[in-house]
Amino acid sequence: MAFLKKGMQLNYQHHWIIDNMPVTWCYEMEDGHQYCNPGFPIGCFVTQDGRAKDACVINSEFNKKNTFYLFNHVDITITYHSGAGENWPGARLVAAKLVPKSYKHFAKDHLNCGGSPMEIPGSFSNKMDLIYTYSVKFEKNNKIKWASRWDYILESMPHTNIQWFSIMNSLVIVLFLSGMVAMIMLRTLHKDIARYNQIDSSEDAQEEFGWKLVHGDIFRPPKKGMLLSVFLGQGTQIFIMTFITLFLACLGFLSPANRGALMTCAVVLWVLLGTPAGYVSARMYKTFGGEKWKTNVLLTALLCPGIIFMDFFVMNLILWKEKSSAAIPFGTLVAILSMWFGISVPLTFIGAYFGFKQRPIEHPVRTNQIPRQIPEQSFFTKPLPGIIMGGILPFGCIFIQLFFILNSIWSHQMYYMFGFLFLVFIILLITCSEATILLCYFHLCAEDYHWWWRSFLTSSFTAVYLFIYAVHYFVSKLLITGTASTILYFGYTMIMVLIFFLFTGTIGFFACYWFVNRIYSVLKVD
User: Fold this and answer.
1) Pairing state between β 133-140 and 21-22
2) d(Cα 431, Cα 438) in Å, to the nearest integer?
3) Do 489 and 474 meet the contact criterion of CB atoms below 8 Å apart?
4) CA angle 248-254-255, nearest 5°?
5) Is 18 helix (H, G, I), strand (E, B) or coil?
6) Among 237, 224, 222, 221, which Cα is nearest to 502's?
7) Residue 174 in 3-state DSSP?
8) Using CA atoms, how far apart are residues 503 and 397, in angstroms rounded to an integer?
9) pTM for this one?
10) What is the mean pLDDT of residues 41-69?
11) Cα–Cα dist 425/431, whole Å
12) Where are its TM segments located (predicted)?
């Protein structure tokens, strides 16, 4: 009884599936728009001051103060498309709707369908026999094609306007950044290069300033190059996986009708993309002058996937302990492990073999023997403020989409707008690249040549904002109580944050690497 009351107070929902279709409860909104919810509430609650909460507003009989009303009856309507007139046998289900009702049944053989509602006083805490009933009605409708059976659910969801607002908001950020980058590239850099290349006399040469001064140190290998190369390899793997998965989802291969298709596709792609990860990691590590290639390969194959798997395994243990149906069976975990060690790790070794066989990437300028001293930096050109600022703009592009994605994960809402998501993904790539290039240029002008790690961390700091937003979402939108649920939420959030950290950091790094190579390749250096 206590559990039921808590469920009604927190507006817990039943989620039913028939023939892979959610059984929906369709009702009219205040604006006359019909909304089809893929779940329906356990019941509802009228507060002590007589205010009807959640679903209690649908019936004027739900009016007693401090009373719970249990939805213990459903009228189900199943709509089907018959194949009789189209020369195929049987029929296909094209819609399943229900209307929840509350009836006070007296006994199993004395049902009260259409009578007074099932009331449970707020102060009542004893045991009670509850009788649940249902009725089913089948309706033939050959106008609805089986392929478009999801349309009535998706059309009722009122998110499209917000999506366009989100895209426009992101595009404004991109245009602003592109303008800044274009101005730097075309005007400032062009002038700089022209001036640097015109200087011939030694008196003028001594007056050099800005980014040309650090040409002898710009490609000095970074500290902890091993870790950076491992992150870049993993980030490349995640980037290719995300791109292909979203592209396939856009083309309609991974529709919400096929439950679990998106995750399956992502995991399989990740396993098969071990080769690019090994190659990029090995090539960058060799470029940094590293020699411990065995450690590099093992870390690329095991470090980040190992962290994610351990986190996932702990979450699964909690689900097993709670006897949740969301727990992944032991056999599936073994299958994932065997795919990881049997396919992904060997592919990473193959990629690394080819990466180490290649020559290191050649840089346009030589590195001096003695490192140059970096002048005193102002507050804004110090590493931390730049990194913190760098993550704001990419996050600004994605936070509206993030709300819908978190809703689909935690509030059991449909996520089907992969076209919008793919657009935002492309915008995110551009924004990460441009923000990192901008800040990299400003730091080089301040004669600070430690750009390797900074370029990675500038765009990957977006993941920190993602985590802060997830905490805000947890506090403001979700009414999660209980230690296990809280650990699960933050456990899964940490997996998302780590994947996003590697992905955005890699984009920023390679954009900056390209930029630095380009500007120093056009300099005439003695």
Assistant:
1) unpaired
2) 10
3) yes
4) 130
5) strand
6) 237
7) helix
8) 15
9) 0.84
10) 89
11) 10
12) 164-186, 227-254, 260-285, 297-320, 326-356, 387-410, 416-444, 456-475, 487-516
pLDDT confidence of residue 127: 84
Integer Cα distance of 65 and 45 in angstroms: 9
Average pLDDT, the chain: 87
Angle made by CA atoms 414, 415, 421, in degrees to the nearest 5: 170
- For strands 13-14 and 119-121, give the pairing: unpaired
What is the strand order of the sheet 91-101 is part of? 91-101, 73-82, 133-140
Q: How confident is the model at residue 362 (pLDDT cuts 50, 70, 90)?
A: confident
Tell me what the mean pLDDT of segment 62-79 comes to. 93
At 459 the three-state DSSP class reads helix
| DSSP β-ladder status, 73-82 and 133-140 | parallel
In the numeric block, which tokens belong to residue 28? 């009219």
pLDDT tens digits, residue range 429-438?
Answer: 998 998 899 8
